[in-house]
Amino acid sequence: MVKLKAGSTQSSGEGGVKRLRKIPDSAPLVGVLLLMMIIFSVTSEYFFQLDNFKNVLANAAVTGIVCIPSTLLIISGQIDLSVGSAAAVSGMLLAQVVNHHGVPLGLLSALIFGLVLGCFNGFIVTVIGVNALITTLGGLGFLYGVALLIGNGQTLGMKNFEWLGTAQPADIPLPILIFAGLAIAGSITLRYTTFGRSIYAIGSNPNAARVVGIRSKRVIFQTFILSSVSAALAGSVLASQLSSGDPNAGLGLELQVVTAIVLGGASLAGGRGSIFGTVLGLLIVGVLNNGLILLDVPTFWQRIAQGLMLIIAVSFDSIRAKLNQSRS
Amino acid sequence: MSNKTELIRLEGIKKSYNSVEVLHGVDLTVNAGEVIALLGENGAGKSTLVKILAGDISPTEGVIRINGAEMSELDVYRARDLGIRMIFQELNDAPSLSVAENIFLGQWPTSGKKVAWKELKKKAKDVLDRLEVDIPLDVEAGSLRVGERQLLEIARALIQNAKILVLDEPTAALSNVEVERLFKVMEQLRAQGVGMVYITHRLDEVVRVADRVQVLRDGNSVLLDDVRAVSRDDMVTAMLGHSASENVRPTSIHGDKIALRVSDLSDGSNFSDINFSVNEGEVLCLFGKIGSGTSEILECLFGLRRITSGSVEIYGGGFSPKSPQDSTAKRIGYLPADRQRLGSFAIRSVAENLSVSSWNRMSRFGFLKKSDEEAAFATWQQSLNISARRGPGQEIATLSGGNQQKVLLGRWFEAQVNILLLVEPTRGVDVGARRDIYEIIRKQAAESNMAVIVATSDYEEVVLLADRALVISRGAISAEFSDDLVQANKLIAASS
Predict the structure, then answer these.
(1) Which residues of chain A neighbour B332 with C-beta distances below 8 Å?
(2) Do B27 and B19 contact (CB within 8 A), yes or no?
(3) Same fold for the domain at B6-244 and the one at B258-495?
(4) Which of B13, B93, B262, B369 has the fewest CB atoms in 10 Å of its CB?
């Protein structure tokens, strides 16, 4: 607050005010991230190494690919919980088709699946008018069943398709590059396009968005498609990394995605959030997971930590909303 | 009246919000078996005063005496215990519960720990009979008409043995028959010794039901007398602060080409067979009480509400408003009465709020330049005199009501609309900024040849803003005035 006031008198330009307003939002996140890195550096000799950082990023990249369109959805006031199972189905589908018809058709079928699912979710939410949480929770359930069905409950081995998950052009894992590309595209979309700005408008006041003539349903429909296609892409990357389709591969992905986004400052009530914040949130989740693994903490503790993290993040969202209310 | 017991005495009530005083020491007394009509323009302080009476907010200064005892701390629960009941214009019911349950909302009769359904239904039936309304007890309250739901609110107050009843414009949504029933019930309550504060804009109702009338203006009590001792003109003059004829009418300048014509328009429930036309550059006001159908007509023209019969033409071509998207594409703009819910993007910047309706025009291949938005804001900031100290990036919610409204008007000016529909354009706007807004609207209409239709329940607004006025009463046009004949007393007489 104090900083903001000082800044507003110094800088007449909008950029100055905006930069100062951003500090209170992301500063705590950067602080938490640095603190975690210091703690893990001290407690584990493997943590502070280039290879390990690459590892953290590569693991976070799969989640990150889904996080970008999901950030758009959450800013617009919607949510997509079906991404975990959607990724699993895509991986299974990919493995099945690659083994019989080759890589191009395999990738195509996974992406088409994403497209169809996105249209389905978008249709149920915008045309039928069902709450997005419920719609995609249902999707999460039935798609998991579909993933099991494809492999008859088993994982499907996949041959000759490792490059998507493991190639390292210029010594950087390909998934990281895909994620970085999506993050940049997402950030530009949100800031500089009418599509992205409409997303903020819809999220901050859906009724007013309608009155000013924004085609809200179309925008939300398209964002659901982006979300499902990105889940299909993430599922393909994951299957490629594992050299197999695993029905359990996407388990809990939706949890990590929502945690990273909300941690990054997006409001579940809509209207607030940024790709930059989401990336920070993602790194926090990624570093935590990595650190716990390096410290040999049993996996069930990692689950507990992830769940608690989401609750803490959402609580911060509510507290922030209350503070804003009392300020104005 | 002196033989009656005094139920309430408010003395020297002052109330400030953020060091702005809105009530400057107002007295109010209510005796048993008496109806006091509380009059005043929007923003005069009526609702603040009754909220203090209901314990909703506490006064900055002043004494509250109830039944002779001084109340140092009056909160909502205490007020309820003392038998103070409020009936608001807005509904406070649970639409998915039954009629019977709604009447007992929160006060279900019980036997042991269970709700005593039989007793509940019997009592509900009794009270509805007393109101002479025939509403089935088992239907969902949400399926009833607004007027019927309002009667349920009244039934609820009756059940709870109100000793002091505050009615805040209860007749706005009622039909004539229902209004008569309400008045009958008020007679019964008066006979039982209930004291009532009746807030209304309808002067004919004041004469019908009230014993005394009190007028507030700008936070002061300016008139308090026996109803029989004051004339309608006295009341209007007290509300306005000057005789109604002193309002200076704007000079009328407008084109003679018809921009919009409406023929036999009906929406099936709120209004029917409405006919009018507006010329380019003309400001037409639809004046009527809240619930008379004025705002619904504009909602229909903008595509927010379905038209059941009749037709709309713009510039001679047929137009059937289906959705706001269609209407904005046809260069029609709409300013809703509920700014928070339908108008502003509270957490977004003023520049964005202003240019949102022009994004399609401003963008190239879907890309927007922030500098374009800021330039648009700078232009309108200057010509509309918008005070936003932190510049184009300031969140709109941090502006005053008047400045927010200017931003939302600028939104449609920037979008270069040909037809602008305004619903209660100065609601929630401080008195000082109102005249600014009237001037802005008239200037823009004249300069850009824009046709403006205003739905309003504020007669002073009509006098200061309109080239021509149509008075709407219970969904039909009851009078038309133009030029010098647009006068407050004529409007009020025609709308009652």
Answers:
(1) none
(2) no
(3) yes
(4) B369
